[in-house]
Amino acid sequence: MQTFLNVSARDNPLLPIVDKEFLTSRETASFLGISIQTLYKLSSKRILNSYRPSGRKIYFKKEDLLEWIEKGKRLSMSTLNKKSVKQFCKI
């Protein structure tokens, strides 16, 4: 028996952004799980790259957002231990 999930874009705000290269502020905030105010703070402090082609509306490149998320990656203890052992063996 096959079942299909019938989800509309209204039910899931992330559904329409899957194939988009640039996201609006609302889409970006939803994508990152943060408020619009926090998004604007990150943008104004230049923590997140943003694009303003018309000078008013702000867009964010999804690739930049994924890179920003990756930069915040925290290593597991086992990975840190492996790195420590490798560094120690080089000495």
Task: Write structural notes for this entry.
The protein has 91 residues and is mainly alpha-helical. It has a single domain, classed as Orthogonal Bundle (Arc Repressor Mutant, subunit A), CATH 1.10.10. 45% of the residues lie in helices and 7% in strands. It has helices at residues 25-32, 36-44, 62-71, 77-90, and strands at 22-24, 59-61. It has a two-stranded antiparallel sheet. Helix 1 packs across helix 2. It starts with 21 loop residues before the first strand and ends with a helix. The relative contact order is 0.12.
In short:
The protein is mainly alpha-helical and 91 residues long.
Topology record:
Layout: E1 22-24, H1 25-32, H2 36-44, E2 59-61, H3 62-71, H4 77-90
Antiparallel strand pairs: 1-2
Structural class by SSE content: mainly alpha
- Report the CATH C-level class: Mainly Alpha
Rough outline:
elongated
CATH second-level architecture: Orthogonal Bundle
Number of E strands: 2
The structural domain count equals 1
The SSE string, one letter per element, is EHHEHH
Portion in beta strands: 5-15%
Average pLDDT, all residues: 81
Portion of residues in helices?
40-55%
Oligomer: single chain
User: What is the alpha-carbon Rg in Å?
Assistant: 19 Å
Span between termini: 60 Å
CATH level-3 fold name: Arc Repressor Mutant, subunit A
Continuous helix count: 4
Uncertain residue ranges: 1-9
Note the main sheet: 2 strands, antiparallel
Q: Spatial order of the strands in the main sheet?
A: 1-2
